[in-house]
Amino acid sequence: MIRETYVNALTLLLLVAIPLWAVFMDEPFTITLMTRAAIFAIAAIGLNIALGIGGLVSLGHAVFFGIGGYAMGILAHHAQTYTPLAEWPFLIDGTKSMPLIWLVAIACSALAALVIGALSLRTTGVYFIMITLAFGQMFFFFAISWAEYGGEDGLSIYIRNGFPGLNTLAPIQFYGLCFVLLCLVLLFAWKLSKSPFGLALNAARQAPMRVETVGLDPKRVKLVAFVISGVITGLAGALFADLNRFVSPTMFSWQTSGEIMIFIILGGVGRLFGPVVGALAFVALEHWLGGLSDYWHIYLGLLLLVIVLFGRGGLIGMVSGREAVHD
Amino acid sequence: MTDPVLKTQGISKSFGALRASRDISIDLFPGEIHAVIGPNGAGKSTLIGQICGTLKPDTGSVQLLGRDVTHETARARARVGLGRTFQISSLAMEDTVLQNALLGALGASGRPWRFWKDALNDKDLRATAEEALLRVGLEGQARMRTAELSHGQRRQLEVAVALTLRPKALVMDEPMAGMGAEGSKRLTGFLDVLRQEAPILLVEHDMDAVFALADRISVLVYGEVIATGTVDEIRSDAAVQEAYLGEDA
Amino acid sequence: MKLVTMAAVAALTIGLSGAKAEPVKVGMITTLSGGGAGLGIDVRDGFMLAVKQSGNEDLEVVIEDDQRKPDIAVQLADKMIQSEKVDVLTGIIWSNLAMAVVPAATAQGKFYLSPNAGPSVLAGKGCHPNYFNVAWQNDNLHEAAGAYANFAGHKNSFILAPNYPAGKDALTGYKRFYEGDLAGEIYTKLGQTDYAAEIAQIRASGADSVFFFLPGGMGISFLKQYEDSGVDLPVVGPAFSFDQGILQAVGDAALGVINTSQWNKDIDNPTNKAFVDAFQAEYGRLPSLYASQGFDTANLLLSAMAKADVKDADAFREALKAADFSSTRGSFTFGPNHHPIQDIYVREVVKEGDVFTNKIIGTALTSHADAYWSECNM
Amino acid sequence: MSLILLIEQVLNGLQFGIMLFLMAAGLTLIFGVMGLINLAHGSLYMIGAFCAAAVAAASGSFILGLIAALAGAALAGALVELVVIRRLYDKDHLDQVLATFALILIFSEGTRWIFGSFPLFLNVPEFLSGPVTLPGGIEYPLYRLTLIVIGLLVALGLYLLISKTRLGVQIRAGENDREMIGALGVDIAMLYTIVFALGAALAGLSGALVGAIQSVQVGMGEPVLILAFVVIVIGGIGSIKGALIGAILVGLTDTLGGIFLPEALKLFFDPSTATSIGSSLASMAIYILMAAVLILRPAGLFGARA
User: Fold this and answer.
1) pLDDT at residue number C17
2) Helices (H) and strands (E) in chain D, counts
3) Minimum CA–CA partner of D303 in chain A
4) Where residue B245 falls among pLDDT bands split at 50, 70, 90?
5) What average pLDDT score do residues C35-53 get?
6) Which of A192, A322, C308, D74 is such that its CA lies 20 to 30 A from the CA of D103?
7) Are residues B2 and B72 in the same domain?
């Protein structure tokens, strides 16, 4: 058994070393794959705060992923067609600036998460899973018929949005940006898990009654966690759209929600690096298995089954055993 | 005579045809331990639920520190100063003992919206939590996972969490259940001292403990208080003999 | 950044001028798994048949499965451009995937030959010198259906399509040519499988004919339910609900239905006859229109390779534009926006032995171009 | 809109709902008894349709096809239960979601591997094809009427099974208290396999019946699966009665919403905008219904109060 800390360090090392190697070997596609993994990891870290710590099994996180994506798509679309986003009550123009886009993505995701969370938290258990799924489907069908922004065809942004001081079209520079954000999000998730709020959230998952009797509101704690979680996934959505220079309703689909969840379970629920390891493993599998056979989904399915049935605690759990006691 | 810290006034509660509480009036004065006993199904859990705010009485009122809290949530009552321990342990089992105590301290501090600072390194929270653990004698187990505690130790931890809130009144639901003789004795000694700090409404099956500790006893049968009085009064009460002790023998 | 790329391309061109017949690397991104895989497989098989027949060893094809997911398609395109360093991309089946991939690919100086999707943007404002559509602009077959409706004397059509952009294009295309009245116009849910409600509306509407665009499984469901409902108004649709792969699943319900297509296996020219025979011999099934489009795409590419070096983008573009190849459709030329100008036929579903297939019964539109070429500036 | 058309549309909604019920009944039964979220239920629906199409094509008999669908799906269900599902009962919902999601991947691609990528042919049998005239002059397809009847018969059968038979007693006991049935000397493992196979058979039957008027293709199960989940959540998980009422609600909302929403909006917008917005709202209607039900009754219409 290897200590979880070493697994985490190794993962970070891979996140730095593989892209550098790819630059050296002139394998830009490897960098693209790593960027994809890093962005998925951010989305999954977001979900992991709600799911891993708060026990909120949301099968609707694609909503936030999609909102982030569409925030980017809509703003950039207006910027590239030189049409204003809104003329009333005051003139709003589109933008091609990533930081601005991120802010909008974060604000919209937060608002959506607040409303969806407040309504969904009236239910628990399977009902919670299903009501979040229902919200996901609503957004999905809405996006499909939203003709102004491409409907099912989605929106293409021809040139990746800009970040001051960077050439975002260079794969390694865009990767660097995503990697830094990933590290920031990881740091935040780590601090949060040990913070007073994390303590309350952790207890709200395990013993909501207890939280209530010490004078705290477990639902409100969970709602705040849901909003934070949605915001992070929304940020990832904006990045993902920029990686592809494209958004489409697929980002809202329930399969997307399922995949974000798979990253977490694959890596290890509730573990800081679980989403990162899971996203890396999933992207690698998708890439390698896809080359093996047209029927690669069968292998992917079998592999997932084996991990669920025999690997408690996901990939990290398989290497490093039970989670160490926090101290 | 001082005012009661906790008081119910004619509370009743029905579940369909079942009348789980009938016109119950009970009070708790500073410095006392008031025990509630009764056979299984007498409605003790329903009574606790109404006092602590997880159940709403159909009629009647609940007063805490002179304030009508009948329509307030469990959370609000906890903030006013009502501490509670559960019959079925409701601790965060995956967390450490210290983390559970910290949760209580956090509730007492009323400031859970901090996302960055390490809770374990927060001096105030930690001091409150460690003091409570020390008082119940769990200071040596602070780093253990709660799931690894013995049954009795979990009860002690329940009490510790309640203490972090510096409660003005305590409601304890069978704190002795599942404890060994040694643990029971120890906890009895502890509660004996604790009553000076916060009066205790004690729902308990362990008659030795009840008779050793209680200043007053109320006997609950079929949702009704059939007698209230000192230990001796209850021992000699004919109705109690018949309804409860007689049956028990 | 754009400048840098162009300069790099220019440098590359100068450096390589003088070299002859550089090998061409083609990246094919198409749908090979999940629902809708049948279309991608047909395009691939048609394409590879032409490559095999040519025996041209300078042509290398890399094939990847996009799973019908736009984001996967975009990444595969990145991979093909960045890692595989392909010269030409092709293969995408769905309009939304094409919209995700094509603008970025052509902006990076790659050629894209579309074997199936033809979204209107790419034919109009979003056209690009390096983008060639070898199939049709999305509206074409619907326009032909509208033209046919006039010819057949339909005066009061009921029209329906799924509620997504291609569905809206379809109804717009039909209405562009159809001159009669509309008894009703419905957008159904994408992926809908039960059409009882729509069929009841058709029955009650007093229409004299029905036009529908419901690709894939949606069309199968609609036709079966329509047949079973006892409503017997004439039905017209584009070929997408009547291709070789789908017809067998529809069965008798499709018999006699009129549909429009730019290709059929009985188009009378030697190339087509040879193609149908060779496809059957190679894969043991009848080719579909998708297979013919794949086949034509490969032959267009081969014809350009014979004339020009792919590294000389301008020359290669001119060679592609000449469309100097023998199409399974007979006459085939490119319009100014690099979209086909071609005949579109009216077909009827018939049964040959045990197999359901189509028979050409007329021509709906001759030398038809799309409606967007005038918006294209390149 | 004429009354006849309205009645016909209500019948359509009813028929759609009844078909959903066949799917949802199995799903809710499995959840009620075993506490399992089975995303792979849609795959069993697909297996039923493929079995029916293959056997009907080979034998020429639709009835034989139906029997094959029941048997094939039940067999597949029992097999999956024995190999995979029974290891999931004591895992949390999260693991169940992932494992059964993995099963979808395996089943879908496996089916494509065996049957190819093109849809299969399965048609309404001769003796049930074509429309019949109902009182009031409504022309309605006989097959769809048959579906309504079969669905109601299955609902009745399930009611009798659960309230009148020994197996039903065990199922009800299992829903209430899992330890209890063990103590009663019931072979729990066997009971679970039977219930799972029963649920699978219902899904397979529904796939075959619907396959005859829709398209028998890989992936046909997932849209229905989501709808079935909507149904059981609206009805209250574990409740067969809830599933029936939820299914009819969803069927009616979906069918009538698609027709009336665009019409209603025409009062406020120009026709093309109304059609467009109305169609969008119609595709969201059942999810809005579900969210609304859960917000008002967090455990569904007939779910056990938490």
Assistant:
1) 40
2) 11, 2
3) A127
4) low
5) 91
6) A322
7) yes
Write down which residue in B166, B181, B204 finishes a domain: B166
The answer to whether C196 contacts chain D (CB < 8 Å) is yes
- Tell me if B106 and A199 make a contact (CB, 8 A cut-off): yes
Name the closest residue on chain D to residue C215, using Cα atoms: D215
- Between C38, C224, C250, which is nearest D117 by CB? C38
Domain C2-136+268-338: which CATH number of 3.90.1720.10, 3.10.560.10, 3.40.640.10, 3.40.50.2300: 3.40.50.2300
Query: Is the confidence at residue D82, as pLDDT, over 90?
Result: yes
Asked whether residue B86 is domain-assigned, the answer is no
Answer yes or no: do C165 and A296 touch at CB < 8 A: no
Contacts of C165 in chain A (CB under 8 A): 147, 150-153
The structural domains of chain C, with segments of one domain joined by +, span 2-136+268-338, 140-261+344-374
Interface test mutation site (partner A, options C80, C128, C164, C187, max chain A beta carbons within 10 A): C164
Domain contains B185:
yes
Q: Give me the phi and psi of D92, to 5 degrees please.
A: -80, 170
Return the CATH number of the domain spanning residue range C140-261+344-374: 3.40.50.2300
CA distances from D9 to B109, B113, D77 (A): 61, 53, 35
Contact between residue C136 and residue C119 where contact means Cβ atoms under 8 Å apart: no
Range of the domain at B101: 91-166
User: Would the pLDDT of C244 be above 90?
Assistant: no
Count of the separate structural domains present in chain B: 2
CA closest to A240 among chain C residues: C71
Q: How many CA atoms lie within 13 A of C181 on its CB side?
A: 6
pTM of structure: 0.88
Q: Of B68, B72, B57, B62, which Cα lies nearest the Cα of B22?
A: B57
Chain A contact set for C103 (CB, 8 A): 156, 158
CATH number at residue B17: 3.40.50.300
* B173 & B242 share domain: yes
Do C168 and A147 lie within an 8 Å CB cutoff?
yes
B76 and B1: one domain?
yes
Nearest CA-CA distance, residue D59 and chain C, Å = 16
The minimum CA-CA distance between A147 and chain C, rounded to whole Å, is 7
| Contact with chain B for residue A324, Cβ under 8 A | no
Facing residues of C378 across strands? none
* Cα of A152 to nearest chain C Cα, Å: 6
Q: How many CA atoms lie within 13 A of D45 on its CB side?
A: 37
pLDDT confidence bin for D306, thresholds 50/70/90: very low
Alpha carbon of D261 to those of A87, A148, B203, D6, D284: distances in Å?
A: 30, 20, 59, 14, 11
Pair (B227, B126) in one structural domain = no
Task: Please tell me whether residues B183 and B68 are part of one structural domain.
Answer: yes
- Does residue B191 share a domain with residue B141? no
Q: Is A126 on the interface with D (CB under 8 A)?
A: yes
Question: Is B63 within a domain?
Answer: yes
Judgement on whether residues B134 and B63 belong to the same structural domain of the protein:
no
Q: Mean pLDDT lowest for which of B14-18, B108-112, D69-73, D148-152?
A: B14-18
Mutate to test the interface with D, among C220, C242, C286 (most CBs of D within 10 A): C220
Looking at the fold, whether B226 and B245 belong to one and the same domain comes out as yes
B111 Cβ neighbours under 8 A, 6+ residues apart: A196
Residues of C in contact with A245 (CB under 8 A): 74, 104
